Protein backbone atom coordinates (compact mmCIF):
# COMPACT_ATOMS: atom_id res chain seq x y z
CA UNK A 1 0.00 0.00 0.00
CA UNK A 2 1.26 3.49 -0.91
CA UNK A 3 2.36 5.46 2.18
CA UNK A 4 -0.28 8.06 1.38
CA UNK A 5 -2.99 5.43 1.66
CA UNK A 6 -1.68 3.98 4.87
CA UNK A 7 -3.41 4.79 8.11
CA UNK A 8 -1.35 7.15 10.23
CA UNK A 9 -1.24 7.54 13.99
CA UNK A 10 0.51 9.85 16.43
CA UNK A 11 0.49 11.20 19.94
CA UNK A 12 -1.20 14.56 19.32
CA UNK A 13 -0.96 15.98 22.84
CA UNK A 14 2.17 17.16 24.66
CA UNK A 15 5.17 15.25 25.90
CA UNK A 16 4.47 12.47 28.41
CA UNK A 17 3.97 12.02 31.25
CA UNK A 18 0.79 14.07 31.35
CA UNK A 19 -2.61 13.67 32.98
CA UNK A 20 -4.28 12.76 29.72
CA UNK A 21 -2.79 12.01 26.31
CA UNK A 22 -4.58 12.05 22.97
CA UNK A 23 -3.56 9.60 20.24
CA UNK A 24 -5.05 10.29 16.83
CA UNK A 25 -5.50 7.86 13.97
CA UNK A 26 -6.47 8.83 10.43
CA UNK A 27 -7.15 6.64 7.40
CA UNK A 28 -9.14 3.74 6.11
CA UNK A 29 -7.99 1.42 8.93
CA UNK A 30 -9.16 3.76 11.71
CA UNK A 31 -12.43 1.89 12.01
CA UNK A 32 -10.70 -1.49 12.29
CA UNK A 33 -8.16 -0.19 14.80
CA UNK A 34 -10.84 1.25 17.02
CA UNK A 35 -12.85 -1.95 16.86
CA UNK A 36 -9.80 -4.11 17.57
CA UNK A 37 -8.71 -2.11 20.61
CA UNK A 38 -11.98 -0.77 22.02
CA UNK A 39 -14.54 -3.29 20.88
CA UNK A 40 -17.82 -1.61 20.00
CA UNK A 41 -17.45 1.74 18.20
CA UNK A 42 -19.09 4.71 19.93
CA UNK A 43 -21.67 6.73 17.99
CA UNK A 44 -19.99 9.23 15.62
CA UNK A 45 -18.59 12.29 17.41
CA UNK A 46 -19.78 11.12 20.84
CA UNK A 47 -17.31 10.10 23.53
CA UNK A 48 -17.45 6.50 24.72
CA UNK A 49 -15.64 4.95 27.69
CA UNK A 50 -13.83 1.70 26.82
CA UNK A 51 -11.26 -0.65 28.29
CA UNK A 52 -8.61 -0.79 25.56
CA UNK A 53 -7.01 -4.20 24.90
CA UNK A 54 -4.11 -5.23 22.67
CA UNK A 55 -4.43 -7.98 20.04
CA UNK A 56 -3.67 -10.65 22.64
CA UNK A 57 -6.56 -9.36 24.74
CA UNK A 58 -4.37 -7.86 27.48
CA UNK A 59 -5.77 -4.63 28.91
CA UNK A 60 -3.92 -1.39 28.03
CA UNK A 61 -5.88 1.38 29.75
CA UNK A 62 -9.32 2.61 30.75
CA UNK A 63 -9.91 5.24 28.05
CA UNK A 64 -12.31 7.57 26.32
CA UNK A 65 -12.57 7.03 22.57
CA UNK A 66 -14.07 9.06 19.74
CA UNK A 67 -15.07 8.08 16.22
CA UNK A 68 -15.23 10.63 13.39
CA UNK A 69 -16.21 8.93 10.14
CA UNK A 70 -14.94 10.77 7.03
CA UNK A 71 -15.47 13.04 5.23
CA UNK A 72 -16.87 15.05 8.17
CA UNK A 73 -13.62 14.81 10.13
CA UNK A 74 -10.55 16.97 10.66
CA UNK A 75 -8.59 15.25 7.89
CA UNK A 76 -11.52 14.29 5.69
CA UNK A 77 -10.64 10.61 6.29
CA UNK A 78 -11.96 8.28 8.96
CA UNK A 79 -10.47 9.46 12.26
CA UNK A 80 -10.32 7.79 15.66
CA UNK A 81 -9.13 9.39 18.89
CA UNK A 82 -7.93 7.64 22.03
CA UNK A 83 -7.88 9.73 25.20
CA UNK A 84 -5.73 7.73 27.60
CA UNK A 85 -3.78 8.33 30.80
CA UNK A 86 -0.62 10.09 29.71
CA UNK A 87 2.02 7.73 31.10
CA UNK A 88 4.93 6.60 28.94
CA UNK A 89 4.15 2.88 29.36
CA UNK A 90 0.46 3.40 28.55
CA UNK A 91 1.41 5.26 25.40
CA UNK A 92 3.99 2.77 24.23
CA UNK A 93 1.52 -0.11 24.76
CA UNK A 94 -1.19 1.77 22.86
CA UNK A 95 1.08 2.81 19.98
CA UNK A 96 2.44 -0.75 19.72
CA UNK A 97 -1.11 -2.16 19.58
CA UNK A 98 -2.08 0.28 16.83
CA UNK A 99 1.03 -0.35 14.75
CA UNK A 100 0.41 -4.11 14.98
CA UNK A 101 -2.59 -3.61 12.68
CA UNK A 102 -1.55 -3.94 9.02
CA UNK A 103 -1.15 -0.85 6.82
CA UNK A 104 -0.65 1.55 9.68
CA UNK A 105 2.39 3.66 10.45
CA UNK A 106 3.54 6.58 12.62
CA UNK A 107 2.61 9.95 11.10
CA UNK A 108 5.20 12.37 9.73
CA UNK A 109 5.26 15.91 11.18
CA UNK A 110 2.23 17.83 9.90
CA UNK A 111 0.83 14.81 8.09
CA UNK A 112 -2.69 15.09 9.55
CA UNK A 113 -2.88 18.70 8.38
CA UNK A 114 -1.43 17.76 5.03
CA UNK A 115 -4.16 15.18 4.54
CA UNK A 116 -6.75 17.76 5.58
CA UNK A 117 -5.29 20.12 2.97
CA UNK A 118 -5.29 17.43 0.29
CA UNK A 119 -8.90 16.65 1.07
CA UNK A 120 -9.87 20.31 0.67
CA UNK A 121 -10.51 20.96 4.38
CA UNK A 122 -8.27 24.04 4.34
CA UNK A 123 -6.17 26.00 1.87
CA UNK A 124 -2.46 26.54 2.25
CA UNK A 125 -2.76 29.95 3.94
CA UNK A 126 -5.10 28.39 6.50
CA UNK A 127 -2.66 25.53 7.08
CA UNK A 128 0.04 28.13 7.69
CA UNK A 129 -2.28 29.89 10.13
CA UNK A 130 -2.84 26.62 11.97
CA UNK A 131 0.91 26.12 12.34
CA UNK A 132 1.28 29.68 13.62
CA UNK A 133 -1.58 29.24 16.08
CA UNK A 134 0.12 26.22 17.61
CA UNK A 135 3.36 28.17 17.95
CA UNK A 136 1.82 31.47 19.11
CA UNK A 137 3.37 32.70 22.38
CA UNK A 138 1.67 36.06 22.74
CA UNK A 139 -1.88 37.26 22.41
CA UNK A 140 -1.23 39.29 19.27
CA UNK A 141 0.46 36.33 17.59
CA UNK A 142 -2.54 34.20 18.50
CA UNK A 143 -5.03 36.68 17.06
CA UNK A 144 -3.07 37.05 13.84
CA UNK A 145 -2.78 33.28 13.42
CA UNK A 146 -6.49 32.86 14.05
CA UNK A 147 -7.35 35.40 11.34
CA UNK A 148 -5.20 33.38 8.98
CA UNK A 149 -6.75 30.11 10.06
CA UNK A 150 -10.19 31.59 9.49
CA UNK A 151 -9.18 32.10 5.87
CA UNK A 152 -9.16 35.89 5.63
CA UNK A 153 -6.21 35.97 3.24
CA UNK A 154 -7.33 32.79 1.48
CA UNK A 155 -10.78 34.24 0.83
CA UNK A 156 -9.37 37.44 -0.62
CA UNK A 157 -6.94 35.47 -2.80
CA UNK A 158 -9.71 33.18 -4.08
CA UNK A 159 -11.85 36.19 -4.98
CA UNK A 160 -8.95 37.93 -6.75
CA UNK A 161 -8.09 34.79 -8.67
CA UNK A 162 -11.67 34.34 -9.90
CA UNK A 163 -11.88 37.96 -11.02
CA UNK A 164 -8.54 37.69 -12.87
CA UNK A 165 -9.85 34.62 -14.65
CA UNK A 166 -13.01 36.55 -15.55
CA UNK A 167 -10.96 39.41 -16.98
CA UNK A 168 -8.84 36.94 -18.98
CA UNK A 169 -11.98 35.31 -20.30
CA UNK A 170 -13.20 38.66 -21.66
CA UNK A 171 -9.88 39.35 -23.36
CA UNK A 172 -9.53 35.85 -24.75
CA UNK A 173 -13.08 35.90 -26.09
CA UNK A 174 -12.13 39.14 -27.86
CA UNK A 175 -8.96 37.57 -29.30
CA UNK A 176 -10.95 34.59 -30.63
CA UNK A 177 -13.64 36.72 -32.26
CA UNK A 178 -11.51 39.38 -33.93
CA UNK A 179 -9.82 38.77 -37.29
CA UNK A 180 -7.49 41.78 -37.10
CA UNK A 181 -6.36 40.84 -33.60
CA UNK A 182 -8.14 43.92 -32.28
CA UNK A 183 -10.22 43.08 -29.26
CA UNK A 184 -13.43 45.11 -29.39
CA UNK A 185 -13.52 47.94 -26.88
CA UNK A 186 -16.72 46.65 -25.28
CA UNK A 187 -14.72 43.60 -24.08
CA UNK A 188 -11.39 45.31 -23.48
CA UNK A 189 -12.68 48.27 -21.45
CA UNK A 190 -14.41 46.25 -18.70
CA UNK A 191 -11.43 43.85 -18.55
CA UNK A 192 -8.98 46.72 -18.01
CA UNK A 193 -11.25 48.25 -15.41
CA UNK A 194 -11.23 44.96 -13.50
CA UNK A 195 -7.46 44.64 -13.74
CA UNK A 196 -6.96 48.16 -12.40
CA UNK A 197 -9.28 47.51 -9.47
CA UNK A 198 -7.59 44.18 -8.67
CA UNK A 199 -4.14 45.74 -8.80
CA UNK A 200 -5.33 48.45 -6.41
CA UNK A 201 -6.76 45.94 -3.92
CA UNK A 202 -3.70 43.70 -3.87
CA UNK A 203 -1.23 46.58 -3.50
CA UNK A 204 -3.37 47.98 -0.70
CA UNK A 205 -3.15 44.71 1.24
CA UNK A 206 0.60 44.58 0.65
CA UNK A 207 1.05 48.19 1.80
CA UNK A 208 -1.06 47.77 4.95
CA UNK A 209 1.38 45.27 6.38
CA UNK A 210 4.04 47.16 8.34
CA UNK A 211 6.15 44.32 9.67
CA UNK A 212 3.14 42.06 10.30
CA UNK A 213 4.96 38.97 9.12
CA UNK A 214 7.64 39.67 11.74
CA UNK A 215 5.00 39.16 14.42
CA UNK A 216 5.73 35.46 14.00
CA UNK A 217 9.43 35.90 14.88
CA UNK A 218 9.30 38.91 17.15
CA UNK A 219 11.18 42.16 17.36
CA UNK A 220 14.86 42.10 18.40
CA UNK A 221 16.12 44.72 20.85
CA UNK A 222 19.87 44.68 21.60
CA UNK A 223 21.31 46.13 24.79
CA UNK A 224 24.84 47.27 23.99
CA UNK A 225 27.41 49.68 25.37
CA UNK A 226 30.75 49.93 27.11
CA UNK A 227 31.66 47.47 29.90
CA UNK A 228 30.13 47.79 33.34
CA UNK A 229 27.42 50.31 32.50
CA UNK A 230 24.71 47.92 33.75
CA UNK A 231 23.56 46.11 30.60
CA UNK A 232 23.10 42.79 32.37
CA UNK A 233 21.38 44.50 35.29
CA UNK A 234 18.91 45.98 32.80
CA UNK A 235 18.13 42.71 31.03
CA UNK A 236 17.54 41.05 34.41
CA UNK A 237 15.09 43.82 35.28
CA UNK A 238 13.25 43.48 31.97
CA UNK A 239 13.11 39.69 32.28
CA UNK A 240 12.27 39.89 36.02
CA UNK A 241 14.74 37.10 36.66
CA UNK A 242 18.49 36.55 36.85
CA UNK A 243 19.24 35.62 33.24
CA UNK A 244 22.65 37.29 33.14
CA UNK A 245 25.53 37.49 35.62
CA UNK A 246 26.01 40.96 37.12
CA UNK A 247 29.31 41.90 38.72
CA UNK A 248 31.45 44.99 39.29
CA UNK A 249 34.10 43.33 37.15
CA UNK A 250 34.26 44.91 33.66
CA UNK A 251 33.99 42.28 30.95
CA UNK A 252 31.61 39.95 32.82
CA UNK A 253 29.30 39.15 29.91
CA UNK A 254 30.89 37.38 26.93
CA UNK A 255 28.11 35.34 25.34
CA UNK A 256 24.99 36.87 23.86
CA UNK A 257 22.11 36.30 26.29
CA UNK A 258 18.55 36.27 24.96
CA UNK A 259 15.20 36.54 26.69
CA UNK A 260 11.77 36.40 25.10
CA UNK A 261 9.38 39.00 26.46
CA UNK A 262 5.69 39.48 25.91
CA UNK A 263 5.32 43.26 25.85
CA UNK A 264 1.62 44.03 25.71
CA UNK A 265 1.11 41.07 23.38
CA UNK A 266 4.07 41.91 21.15
CA UNK A 267 6.80 39.25 21.08
CA UNK A 268 10.12 40.94 21.82
CA UNK A 269 13.53 39.26 22.07
CA UNK A 270 15.90 41.29 24.21
CA UNK A 271 19.60 40.47 23.99
CA UNK A 272 22.38 41.37 26.41
CA UNK A 273 25.87 41.58 24.96
CA UNK A 274 29.49 41.91 26.02
CA UNK A 275 30.67 45.41 26.86
CA UNK A 276 32.28 46.91 23.78
CA UNK A 277 35.93 47.91 24.29
CA UNK A 278 39.45 47.25 23.06
CA UNK A 279 40.87 44.22 24.83
CA UNK A 280 43.73 41.72 24.58
CA UNK A 281 41.71 38.83 25.98
CA UNK A 282 40.78 36.63 22.99
CA UNK A 283 37.60 35.35 24.67
CA UNK A 284 36.40 38.86 25.39
CA UNK A 285 37.37 39.91 21.84
CA UNK A 286 35.04 37.23 20.51
CA UNK A 287 32.32 38.50 22.86
CA UNK A 288 32.80 42.04 21.54
CA UNK A 289 32.67 40.79 17.96
CA UNK A 290 29.36 39.02 18.66
CA UNK A 291 28.03 42.06 20.47
CA UNK A 292 28.72 44.29 17.49
CA UNK A 293 27.25 41.78 15.04
CA UNK A 294 24.04 41.29 17.01
CA UNK A 295 23.60 45.00 17.62
CA UNK A 296 24.01 45.63 13.89
CA UNK A 297 21.24 43.09 13.10
CA UNK A 298 18.82 44.24 15.78
CA UNK A 299 15.64 46.18 15.10
CA UNK A 300 16.44 48.60 17.93
CA UNK A 301 19.61 49.24 19.93
CA UNK A 302 19.53 50.40 23.53
CA UNK A 303 22.97 51.99 23.94
CA UNK A 304 23.70 52.09 27.64
CA UNK A 305 26.00 54.64 29.24
CA UNK A 306 26.75 55.56 32.81
CA UNK A 307 28.30 58.36 34.85
CA UNK A 308 31.67 59.26 33.40
CA UNK A 309 31.04 57.24 30.23
CA UNK A 310 30.36 59.15 27.07
CA UNK A 311 27.78 58.05 24.55
CA UNK A 312 30.24 57.66 21.70
CA UNK A 313 31.46 54.42 20.16
CA UNK A 314 27.99 53.23 19.22
CA UNK A 315 27.86 50.52 16.57
CA UNK A 316 26.65 51.71 13.22
CA UNK A 317 23.66 49.89 11.82
CA UNK A 318 20.38 50.73 10.21
CA UNK A 319 18.38 50.23 13.39
CA UNK A 320 17.38 53.20 15.51
CA UNK A 321 19.54 53.81 18.59
CA UNK A 322 18.18 54.95 21.93
CA UNK A 323 20.76 56.20 24.39
CA UNK A 324 19.92 55.02 27.89
CA UNK A 325 21.85 56.76 30.66
CA UNK A 326 22.03 54.31 33.56
CA UNK A 327 22.92 54.65 37.26
CA UNK A 328 21.19 58.01 37.70
CA UNK A 329 21.10 57.12 41.42
CA UNK A 330 24.84 58.00 41.38
CA UNK A 331 24.30 61.46 39.91
CA UNK A 332 23.68 63.05 36.57
CA UNK A 333 26.71 61.81 34.65
CA UNK A 334 27.89 63.02 31.27
CA UNK A 335 25.34 64.76 29.08
CA UNK A 336 24.27 62.67 26.09
CA UNK A 337 25.63 63.67 22.70
CA UNK A 338 22.52 64.14 20.58
CA UNK A 339 23.89 63.35 17.13
CA UNK A 340 22.35 60.28 15.48
CA UNK A 341 20.40 59.42 18.59
CA UNK A 342 16.70 58.76 18.18
CA UNK A 343 15.67 59.03 21.81
CA UNK A 344 17.28 59.33 25.23
CA UNK A 345 16.31 57.89 28.60
CA UNK A 346 17.67 58.17 32.12
CA UNK A 347 17.30 55.15 34.39
CA UNK A 348 18.65 53.34 37.37
CA UNK A 349 18.59 49.69 36.43
CA UNK A 350 19.48 48.77 39.98
CA UNK A 351 16.77 50.80 41.72
CA UNK A 352 14.23 50.68 38.91
CA UNK A 353 13.89 54.43 38.27
CA UNK A 354 12.78 55.23 34.73
CA UNK A 355 12.14 51.60 33.77
CA UNK A 356 8.39 52.06 33.39
CA UNK A 357 8.99 54.86 30.87
CA UNK A 358 11.52 52.76 28.98
CA UNK A 359 9.14 49.79 28.79
CA UNK A 360 6.27 52.01 27.71
CA UNK A 361 8.47 53.40 24.93
CA UNK A 362 9.39 49.85 23.86
CA UNK A 363 5.71 48.91 23.65
CA UNK A 364 5.10 52.03 21.53
CA UNK A 365 8.02 51.14 19.29
CA UNK A 366 6.72 47.57 18.88
CA UNK A 367 3.27 48.92 18.03
CA UNK A 368 4.68 51.12 15.29
CA UNK A 369 7.05 48.43 14.08
CA UNK A 370 4.37 45.78 13.65
CA UNK A 371 1.73 48.20 12.44
CA UNK A 372 -1.63 48.31 14.14
CA UNK A 373 -1.73 44.70 13.02
CA UNK A 374 -5.44 44.02 13.24
CA UNK A 375 -5.91 44.31 9.49
CA UNK A 376 -2.72 42.54 8.50
CA UNK A 377 -3.39 39.58 6.26
CA UNK A 378 0.09 38.64 5.10
CA UNK A 379 2.07 36.72 7.72
CA UNK A 380 4.82 35.07 5.73
CA UNK A 381 7.45 36.04 3.17
CA UNK A 382 6.05 33.31 0.90
CA UNK A 383 2.63 34.98 0.87
CA UNK A 384 4.07 38.45 0.36
CA UNK A 385 6.23 37.26 -2.53
CA UNK A 386 3.31 35.62 -4.35
CA UNK A 387 1.01 38.60 -3.83
CA UNK A 388 3.75 40.82 -5.20
CA UNK A 389 4.06 38.56 -8.25
CA UNK A 390 0.31 38.76 -8.80
CA UNK A 391 0.31 42.56 -8.47
CA UNK A 392 3.33 42.87 -10.80
CA UNK A 393 1.65 40.64 -13.38
CA UNK A 394 -1.47 42.83 -13.34
CA UNK A 395 0.62 45.98 -13.63
CA UNK A 396 2.60 44.62 -16.57
CA UNK A 397 -0.68 43.58 -18.16
CA UNK A 398 -1.89 47.18 -18.01
CA UNK A 399 1.34 48.46 -19.53
CA UNK A 400 1.30 45.89 -22.34
CA UNK A 401 -2.18 46.77 -23.60
CA UNK A 402 -0.69 48.80 -26.45
CA UNK A 403 1.50 45.85 -27.53
CA UNK A 404 -1.28 43.37 -27.99
CA UNK A 405 -3.98 41.59 -26.10
CA UNK A 406 -2.17 38.23 -26.14
CA UNK A 407 0.56 39.69 -23.96
CA UNK A 408 -2.00 41.04 -21.51
CA UNK A 409 -3.68 37.63 -21.34
CA UNK A 410 -0.34 36.01 -20.62
CA UNK A 411 0.37 38.38 -17.71
CA UNK A 412 -3.07 37.67 -16.29
CA UNK A 413 -2.34 33.96 -16.43
CA UNK A 414 0.88 34.55 -14.49
CA UNK A 415 -1.00 36.61 -11.88
CA UNK A 416 -3.68 33.93 -11.46
CA UNK A 417 -0.95 31.30 -11.20
CA UNK A 418 0.77 33.19 -8.37
CA UNK A 419 -2.52 33.33 -6.44
CA UNK A 420 -3.07 29.64 -7.13
CA UNK A 421 0.29 28.93 -5.56
CA UNK A 422 -0.60 31.11 -2.60
CA UNK A 423 -3.65 28.92 -2.00
CA UNK A 424 -1.73 25.73 -2.69
CA UNK A 425 -3.72 24.93 -5.83
CA UNK A 426 -0.78 24.52 -8.19
CA UNK A 427 2.68 22.93 -8.13
CA UNK A 428 2.18 22.13 -4.52
CA UNK A 429 4.65 19.30 -3.95
CA UNK A 430 7.78 21.39 -3.27
CA UNK A 431 5.95 23.99 -1.20
CA UNK A 432 4.00 21.42 0.79
CA UNK A 433 7.09 19.47 1.74
CA UNK A 434 8.75 22.63 3.04
CA UNK A 435 5.71 23.84 4.98
CA UNK A 436 4.39 20.67 6.57
CA UNK A 437 7.78 19.35 7.66
CA UNK A 438 7.97 22.20 10.16
CA UNK A 439 4.70 21.18 11.84
CA UNK A 440 4.54 19.20 15.05
CA UNK A 441 4.10 15.46 14.86
CA UNK A 442 0.48 14.59 15.54
CA UNK A 443 -0.80 17.78 13.89
N1 LIG B 1 24.57 52.38 41.41
C1 LIG B 1 24.17 51.63 40.42
N2 LIG B 1 24.88 50.55 40.08
C2 LIG B 1 24.46 49.80 39.05
C3 LIG B 1 23.29 50.10 38.33
N3 LIG B 1 23.14 49.17 37.37
C4 LIG B 1 24.18 48.31 37.46
N4 LIG B 1 24.98 48.70 38.49
C5 LIG B 1 26.21 48.05 38.92
O1 LIG B 1 27.20 48.17 37.90
C6 LIG B 1 28.02 47.01 37.88
C7 LIG B 1 28.05 46.41 36.50
O2 LIG B 1 26.77 45.92 36.20
P1 LIG B 1 26.52 44.87 35.04
O3 LIG B 1 25.06 44.73 34.89
O4 LIG B 1 27.33 43.65 35.28
O5 LIG B 1 27.11 45.69 33.84
P2 LIG B 1 27.36 45.21 32.34
O6 LIG B 1 27.22 46.40 31.48
O7 LIG B 1 26.53 44.05 32.02
O8 LIG B 1 28.90 44.78 32.42
P3 LIG B 1 29.73 43.86 31.39
O9 LIG B 1 28.94 42.63 31.10
O10 LIG B 1 30.97 43.55 32.18
O11 LIG B 1 29.99 44.68 30.20
C8 LIG B 1 27.47 46.07 38.92
O12 LIG B 1 28.19 46.20 40.09
C9 LIG B 1 26.05 46.55 39.11
O13 LIG B 1 25.51 46.24 40.38
C10 LIG B 1 22.52 51.25 38.75
O14 LIG B 1 21.49 51.59 38.18
N5 LIG B 1 23.03 51.96 39.77
K1 LIG C 1 30.11 43.83 34.79
MG1 LIG D 1 27.03 42.18 31.42
TrEMBL record:
GTP binds at residues 228-233, 247-253, 272-275, 348-350. Its cofactor is K(+). GO terms for biological process: tRNA methylation; tRNA wobble uridine modification. Keywords: Cytoplasm, GTP-binding, Hydrolase, Magnesium, Metal-binding, Nucleotide-binding, Potassium, tRNA processing. GO terms for cellular component: cytoplasm. Its EC number is 3.6.-.-. InterPro entries: AAA+_ATPase, G_TrmE, GTP-bd, GTP-bd_TrmE_N, GTPase_MnmE, MnmE_dom2, MnmE_helical, P-loop_NTPase. (6S)-5-formyl-5,6,7,8-tetrahydrofolate binds at residues 24, 81, 121, 443. The keyword tRNA processing applies. It is found in: Cytoplasm. Belongs to the TRAFAC class TrmE-Era-EngA-EngB-Septin-like GTPase superfamily. TrmE GTPase family. Homodimer. Heterotetramer of two MnmE and two MnmG subunits. Exhibits a very high intrinsic GTPase hydrolysis rate. Involved in the addition of a carboxymethylaminomethyl (cmnm) group at the wobble position (U34) of certain tRNAs, forming tRNA-cmnm(5)s(2)U34. This is tRNA modification GTPase MnmE. It comes from Bradyrhizobium centrolobii. The gene is mnmE.
Amino acid sequence: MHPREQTIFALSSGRPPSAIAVVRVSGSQANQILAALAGKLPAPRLAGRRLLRDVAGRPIDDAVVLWFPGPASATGEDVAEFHVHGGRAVLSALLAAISAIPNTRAAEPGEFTRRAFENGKLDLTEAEGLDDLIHADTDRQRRQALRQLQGLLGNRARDWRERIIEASALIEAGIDFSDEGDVPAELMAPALKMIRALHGEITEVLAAQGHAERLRDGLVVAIAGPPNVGKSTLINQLARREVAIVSPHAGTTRDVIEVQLDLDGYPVTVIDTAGIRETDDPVEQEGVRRARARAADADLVLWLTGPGVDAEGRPVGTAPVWVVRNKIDLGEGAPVAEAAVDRTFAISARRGDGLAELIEALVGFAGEFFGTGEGALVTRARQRELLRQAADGLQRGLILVKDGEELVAEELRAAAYALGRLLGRVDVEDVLGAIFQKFCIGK
